[in-house]
Amino acid sequence: MENKTQTEDGWIKAFIKENFAEQKKTRRWGIFFKSLTFLYLFGAVFLFFNAQTNLLSDQQKEPHTAMVQIKGAIAADKEANANSIVTGLRAAFKNEFSQAVMLVINSPGGSPVQAGYVFDEIQRLRLLYPDKKLYAVIAELGASGSYYIAAAADQIYADKASLVGSIGVTASSFGFVELMKKVGIERRHYTSGEHKGFLDPFSPSKESERDFWQEVLDVTHQQFIKVVKIGRGDRLNSNKAELFSGLIWNGEQALALGLIDGLGSPGFVAREVVKAENIVDYSVQPSAIEKLTKRLGISIGNGFANQLVSDNNGINLNF
After folding, report:
1. Which residue from 76, 178, 271, 309 has the highest number of Cβ atoms inside 10 Å of its Cβ?
2. Mean pLDDT in the chain?
3. Do β-strands 134-143 and 98-107 pair in parallel, antiparallel, or remain unpaired?
4. pLDDT at 177
5. Average pLDDT, stretch 148-170?
6. Residue ranges per structural domain of the chain
7. pTM check: above 0.85
8. Assign residue 144 a region: left if phi > 0, alpha if psi is -120 to 50, beta otherwise?
9. Over pLDDT 90: what percentage of the chain?
């Protein structure tokens, strides 16, 4: 009986050992095939974007109109940041086969600093390549900071229904002081410096600080106006007092005001103005890895965090 029990125990142990070994082997093969699948997909994505890059390089070796796009809000952490825009512009101007450079704009504006960087670089590039024209073409929207950039172009075009202008400066926030009093919340805000917390929406607003902040906005607005006047010169309809009031107009109205030079699409400008119908996009594109991770949703956490955290108590200066 004892021998039989020992035999059964041995058989069970052997069975368990063999089962574990089989599971271990199965897991290893599973990991191997998953890794192989990932490497295959990664390789396919890499080859796809590499092929696109090579195709673009071939197109750049023929006469063409070089295009750089400005899409969305202009900010350091957005797709339309100064570094990306300037990188595309430098490459577009540098290529001997590009007959002209075309900025295609669809943006509500954004950071005065980022717009200023791009404007200054355009001025430098135009001096460096005096024979190469720069055209700005406004799609649906070319307002505020994006118009600031467009003003650096030799000529600006838009559709008759495009929205153009908004030459002004804005900064906004909320005030929660009275609400806090009603619900019995006490604000404890410690600063060093008499006005260090003047942008805090949870502290009472002082008239002297409001006047100071308005002066900052007014000075920045004058900087904007100066840039537009430098870029547009006597083409502006100086009889219109509201030209720099922050209003926005459609393309037809903007043409009458001298804010743009003509009505037309990117294709029209390339074909009829530049006389080089082939358009090559020099816009800086996210890498294959960045595109892949974005599609997988890895960037969601960063985007959410950016919404929760901001400097200057949530107040930002914007064109």
Report:
1. 271
2. 83
3. parallel
4. 80
5. 96
6. 60-173+206-314
7. no
8. left
9. 55
